[in-house]
Specification:
single chain, 764 residues, alpha/beta, 7-stranded parallel β-sheet, 6-stranded parallel β-sheet, 24 helices, 32% helix, disordered N terminus
């Protein structure tokens, strides 16, 4: 199966392959003029197979055992069909990068053997006898291995690719390793040996986890009930989806750990999915401390080679527990006993490049295929998961109390519309912080407590605008304004990465009247230092932690109380359990509320609830102050009251009335290209073909568009989109698939790209 192919391709196997090849092995196959790595799926059992002389041969086999097990083949085929992508494209997303690249390796005869003549070993020589001459060790080689050695010795130096062509039925990695061990040959690029992955923050917090490893954990009645129900299904070997809706600090992680321990006792394996490894460091450390050392970690900070090393260890059965981000849902684990999806609501589980799969949903499909329970956990569950609980498709388990009966933080809302200019000496500081928040920050600092300030905007100002002519400095490649960053006085586009030096005057009217609009995390940091000049402050956003190791050191300092105030974007909302935090300030709670997305209210509620949950996780009670221009909005009110049920009731009513998920299914078809007219024409042609196939009844899909995307241009490509909604998922997918196949030629054109996004999350 070629990586970028449109379907399964047939190849002819040379004599001897029938006993060597197994489904899930990597092979080298020709595709056009290229030779690429693919996965052998099955023998062709068609009634009328292609004529052997018309198909090409497999050139070589890379593995001695399958690296892509049968259950993953099944999941791969399901995912490709559901997400309406080519099987080869889906396969490329599943396999780690190191699996799809063949290293250029040169095999050379060792210098001490280069001029020697080989003499056949005596037949009476014992196989395991120590060598008495340069070549007496050859008796330990098999016949094919001796032929391989003879070939290499004759050529003196030969590439690994050439050897694969000459010895297609020989598992070369093992054979060459034997020659290396016998000191007959050397490799210019030696075969990789396993390297321990870089786990960063997991190690930084390992001591914390170990301190509590032997401590007796007393479960609450709610935790005990959740553990018993999950464990009962696990021990029965059944499939069921559990949704743990637990308030922040309610002990969801302890439920994960105890049920995982039950799976290991049954000699079954466990898969943990987390949104981002770097921001869930404590979970990684706790799993390692509680569940042993047979653990693999898969995340994007690893190189392709490191991830391939971990993949092979997992496939060989050397690993009992895998922890990873969304791509870890494809880990080659046999005998799965439990799958845990922590923070299941997080948008990070949705892939936004290549095949747009949702790892949470694929985890559920995989659990069903493996007949094991799947545990979804969140303080703010996605409305899709909660709606499944309402119809008993999932089992809801609630943890309504914090551990040790700690109270939830008190929440106060500041109406920014009514806030009047106070008598603060520093007007810049008062522009960022309300009087209530300013005083709370001062009091918390003086008491030696820690605070969190949350603003979901990076940089110093959201845009620069000329106060003379009104010109806003925009990106040359995207239809968005450039964000002003104080550090380096640069303008950045957060969509395409374009940057430039901020000018001193307006590029249009040339007046020196440029001023910033909007507030970013850099400006918050500046205002805080004006308010508290001696405060120890750190900023946690994508700009501040670009360098390797910075995030790890920052989190160590944060937990050690070497930082008084942590300012950040949504990165501060995830996975941080620091007992010293007693104050959380939310500066503009309605930033995400105004996005052109039907999930805007849901994301606002989730972010506010999650960041509020950082306060009061220790012995001291917590306090949260929310500044907003929309104080009456139900998402903000419900977050302030820690009331997920009420929010879900109101939001689901809105979704049902307007026909949005979870009551319907959606597909977003996006068209991108340099030529705007051509993009628009392709979108209109797509809709015309759709209209001819849409069943005209109340269950048929509704077609919205074509229309320009909310962000009309990104990276120099014009963007149009067509949104389809329907109650019948199978019918909706079939209609899109049919039209997609008709226009597949256009979708592959470099001038026009057609992207099909099933169950979309990002509507921008």
């Amino acid at each position: 199966m070629p990586i970028t192919g449109t379907g399964i391709l047939s190849y002819r196997a040379q004599e001897g392959f029938s006993s060597l090849l197994q489904p899930g092995m990597r092979v080298i196959v020709p595709v056009g003029k290229r030779k690429i790595t693919g996965i052998f799926i099955r023998w062709n059992d068609a009634v009328h197979p292609p004529a052997p002389e018309k198909i090409k041969e497999i050139l070589g086999v890379l593995d001695e055992a399958p690296v892509f097990p049968q259950d993953l083949i099944q999941l791969w085929q399901w995912a490709a069909k559901y997400y309406l992508v080519a099987p080869g494209e889906m396969l490329g997303a599943m396999l780690p990068g190191g699996a799809l690249r063949e290293e250029e390796v040169l095999v050379k005869v060792k210098k001490k053997h280069a001029g020697e003549k080989q003499s056949p070993p005596a037949q009476t020589e014992k196989v395991n006898a120590p060598p008495t001459s340069s070549f007496s060790c050859l008796s330990t080689l098999t016949g094919p291995e001796q032929k391989l050695w003879a070939c290499i010795r004759e050529k003196k130096r030969v590439s690994l690719r050439a050897l694969r062509r000459q010895f297609p039925t020989l598992v070369l990695p093992d054979a060459l390793q034997r020659l290396v061990d016998l000191q007959l040959v050397e490799m210019q690029k030696h075969m990789r040996k396993h390297r321990a992955p870089r786990e960063g923050l997991a190690n930084a917090y390992l001591n914390v986890a170990e301190e509590g490893e032997n401590a007796r954990v007393r479960l609450s009645s709610y935790q005990q009930n959740a553990c018993e129900k999950i464990t009962a299904v696990l021990r029965a070997g059944d499939f069921r989806v559990f949704l743990i809706n637990g308030v922040t600090g309610s002990g969801k992680t302890e439920v994960y750990l105890q049920t995982a321990q039950a799976a290991l006792e049954k000699r079954r394996r466990v898969l943990f999915l987390v949104p981002e490894i770097a921001l869930t460091h404590q979970l990684v450390a706790q799993v390692r401390a509680r569940l042993g050392q047979r653990i693999a970690v898969l995340h994007s900070a690893q190189t392709g080679a490191e991830r391939w090393d971990e993949w092979r260890r997992i496939a060989r059965g050397e690993i009992d527990v895998v922890i990873g981000v969304r791509s870890a849902v494809f880990a080659p684990m046999a005998n799965l006993g439990l799958i845990v999806v922590d923070e299941e609501h997080d948008p990070a589980y949705k892939q936004e490049e290549g095949p747009r799969y949702n790892a949470r949903d694929l985890a559920i499909v995989r659990g069903q295929m493996a007949s094991c329970p799947v545990v979804l956990g969140s303080a703010t569950p996605s409305l899709e998961s909660f709606a499944h609980c309402q119809i008993q498709r999932y089992t809801l388990l609630e943890l309504p109390e914090r551990v040790e009966a700690r109270p939830l933080p008190t929440v106060e809302i500041v109406d920014l519309r009514q806030r009047q200019r106070d008598n603060a000496e520093d007007r810049e500081t008062s522009r960022v912080f309300s009087a209530l928040l300013r005083q709370a920050l001062v009091d918390n600092y003086q008491m030696g407590k820690q605070s969190v300030l949350f603003l979901n905007r990076r940089g110093y100002a959201s845009y620069l605008q000329c106060r003379s002519c009104g010109e806003v400095l925009s990106c040359v490649q995207c239809s968005v304004s450039l964000t002003f960053h104080l550090q380096g006085r640069e303008l950045h586009c957060h969509y395409c990465g374009f940057s430039r030096q901020a000018p001193d005057c307006c590029p249009l009217c040339h007046e020196p009247e440029l001023g910033g609009g909007g507030v970013g995390t850099e400006q918050v940091e500046e205002a805080l230092l004006r308010l508290l000049p001696k405060v120890r402050v750190a900023r946690l956003d994508r700009d501040s932690v670009r360098k390797k190791g910075v995030l790890s050191k920052m989190m160590e300092s944060w937990r050690a109380h070497e930082i008084d105030v942590l300012i950040g974007t949504q990165m501060v909302t995830k996975g941080h359990d620091v007992p010293g935090v007693t104050l959380v300030g939310v500066l503009l709670a309605d930033v995400t509320l105004n996005l052109p997305d039907f999930r805007a209210a849901e994301r606002t509620f989730q972010l506010l609830t999650q960041v509020a949950g950082r306060a009061g996780r220790g012995e001291e009670p917590g306090r949260v102050i929310i500044q907003t221009y929309a104080p009456q909005h139900y998402s903000i009110r419900c977050a302030a009251q820690h009331d997920f049920r009420r929010f879900a009731t109101l939001e689901l009513r809105y979704r049902r009335n307007l026909g949005y998920p979870p009551y319907t299914r959606m597909v977003n078809v996006r068209f991108e290209g340099k030529n705007g007219e051509r993009v628009q024409k392709a979108a209109e042609q797509f809709v015309a073909r759709l209209t001819n196939r849409v069943v005209q009844n109340e269950r048929g899909p509704t077609v919205l568009g074509p229309a320009p995307a909310p962000i009309e241009r990104i990276k120099g490509r014009e963007r149009w989109q067509v949104v389809l909604k329907g109650y019948d998922r199978a019918l909706l997918h079939e209609v899109v698939r049919t039209v997609q196949e008709e226009l597949i030629g256009q979708g592959r054109s470099p001038q026009l790209r057609i992207i099909v996004d099933v169950d979309p999350y990002n509507m921008l």
